[in-house]
Design goal:
325 residues, alpha/beta, Peroxisomal Thiolase, Chain A, domain 1, 5-stranded mixed beta sheet, 9 helices, 31% helix, binds oxa(dethia)-CoA
Length: 325
């Protein structure tokens, strides 16, 4: 039987550049305490957030994604026309149609490329990164722009203290391209749809509802094994990991997972992302936002081995090891 023609990919894929964008408006815990029954002390102690950014009403999710995506393309040393596919991980588009990715691609100058949204909630960036790596390795696209972008303030009840203090807006992006060596490890991913009720927007007229304590327990018990599985799949030891960048859901969750990594041999000098303190929980944007901020602050270096893990509504989770550009 004749075999069909298929493209030739590359032995590996790697992140070539990253970028991020946050809205201008900084909202402190004190600001929130003026409109709901909460306090700076409670939020700092229970969640670890001090400030977060909220987009203005006329600033759209697509606007933020364009800013972050364009920066990542420039950081990769590429032109928009070099990008062969655009993936936007998001769960907060204002409507189902149109998607974000086609608009983002057009506005960045990536003309005619395949562009689609991917919804795995707070795990979305790691899902999209895995897809991008596979597209590049298969030769389906040479350079893929991956963006995590959320405008959670569109979907959060502004006076619900169980969610309004956590969620925030922003976008982060990475460009994935070919590499002679694999610099994005195999993804450890999965879902637990039986737990779907824990985080949901029940219908298009509702706000985000979250069973905070249940999600907290799930995240602090189930996600460290996923992160360790990603290390194993990459064929390295946990002591080889320089940087740990989990989804920025709650600082106590970050610390709990990191503690379990340390118990399994992670180095004492492991650099841990704590971007939630000044960015809040930005769902699919939190991991690339954290990476970009850590790079700007000089906390991470090119060539560092970073362990990423995202988790959230679905429930969905995904993690992989990457070498930083
Ligand atoms: O990103 C997607 C995945 N999401 C997550 O991973 C989120 C996981 N969950 C969490 O981060 C935490 O469960 C929350 C931050 C949502 C809540 O923190 P908690 O420590 O689990 O608080 P709680 O819901 O158990 O509430 C403890 C107490 C309650 O008062 P009583 O009943 O003990 O008197 C709440 O009414 O704190 C009260 N409370 C608050 N007090 C001040 C709840 N929210 C607030 C608030 N300010 N904002």
């Amino acid at each position: 039987m004749t075999s069909f023609a298929v493209p030739t990919g590359s032995p590996g894929a790697r992140i070539l550049g990253i970028g991020s964008y946050q809205p201008e408006t900084i909202v402190s815990n004190h600001d929130l305490a003026r409109t709901m029954d909460t306090s700076d002390q409670w939020i700092r102690e229970r969640v670890g957030i001090v400030n977060r950014r909220f987009a203005k009403p006329d600033e759209k999710l697509v606007d933020m994604a364009v800013e972050a995506g364009a920066k990542a393309v420039a950081d990769a040393g590429l032109a928009p026309t070099d990008i062969g596919a655009v993936l936007v991980a998001t769960c907060t588009m204002p409507s189902q149609i149109p998607n974000a990715a086609a608009q983002v691609a057009d506005r960045i100058g990536v003309t005619g490329a395949p562009a689609f949204d991917l919804n795995a909630a707070c795990a979305g960036f790691c899902y999209a990164l895995a897809m991008a790596s596979d597209l590049v390795r298969a030769g389906t696209a040479r350079h893929v722009l991956v963006i995590g972008a959320e405008k959670l303030t569109d979907w959060v009840d502004p006076v619900d203290r169980s969610t309004a203090i956590i969620f925030a807006d922003g976008a982060g992006a990475a460009v994935v391209g070919p590499s002679d060596t694999a610099a994005i490890g195999a993804v450890a991913w999965g879902s637990a749809g039986d737990l779907v009720d824990m985080i949901q927007i029940p219908d298009r007229h509702s706000f985000v509802h979250q069973e905070g304590q249940s999600v907290f327990r799930w995240a602090t018990t189930q996600i460290a094994p996923i992160a360790l599985r990603a290390v194993e799949l990459a064929g390295i030891e946990v002591s080889d990991v320089d940087v740990f960048v989990p989804h920025q859901a709650n600082l106590r969750i970050v610390e709990a997972i990191a503690k379990r990594l340390h118990a399994k041999g992670a180095r004492e000098d492991l650099v841990i992302a704590r971007d939630i303190v000044d960015s809040g929980n930005t769902s699919s944007a939190s991991i690339p936002l954290a990476l970009d901020h850590m790079r700007a602050a000089g906390e991470v270096r090119s060539g560092d081995v970073a362990l990423l893990v995202g988790f959230g509504a679905g429930l969905s989770y995904a993690g992989q090891v990457v070498r930083l550009p």
